[in-house]
Design goal:
CATH architecture: 3-Layer(aba) Sandwich
Number of helices: 4
Helix content: 25-40%
Radius of gyration: 17 Å
CATH class: Alpha Beta
Number of strands: 6
CATH superfamily: Phosphoglycerate mutase-like
Structural class: alpha/beta
Distance between the termini: 39 Å
Strand order of the largest sheet: 3-2-4-1-5-6
Length: about 210
Amino acid sequence: MTRTVVHMLRHGEVHNPTGVLYGRMPGFRLSELGEKQALTVAEHLADHDVVHVVASPLERAQQTATPIADAHQLELDTDERLLESINQFEGLKVAVGDGALREPQHWPKLVNPFRPSWGEPYIDLAHRMLGAAQRARAAAEGHEAVCVSHQLPIWTLRRFLEGKRLWHDPRRRQCSLASLTSLVFEGEKLDRIVYTEPVGATNPRVTGA
């Protein structure tokens, strides 16, 4: 049976000196450390059988994907389904006990954390990410693909595939900067999920990471 691996790669560190939730906002690119992380991941995957590289259209994802595509002499593809999730707190500080969450006018957005009420429904996010993963699997059948996306989309997809509830504590996500959540397929069936951290672990509580 044909084995195909789809690596869901979270982008590297972003330059975010004000610590806002930047979501889909333009102008947020990798920091100097983030650029180094992208190169480290490219080196980590250099001897892998990568034949397809695709990224979210956001700048930080494109920057993270470029060294990998270049290393394998591939054209970088873009898939809108790999985008960061929609969030009504975009542009604000949202750390617990800080910023927007302390303002009463924002409380109605928090009424249903299970959906969630402040942004894109988790199930919709999981479905579009699964579509992107399946497209990448088909494009790289028998080889490996790299999909560069964002923390919440990758973590939501993983929980969906593992049959876990989609609402969760964001502080407990296992999806560090420049980490790989690798989906191993046997034929069209998912066989297992392998998680690795080529640049080491990072704190999921850090806003703007």
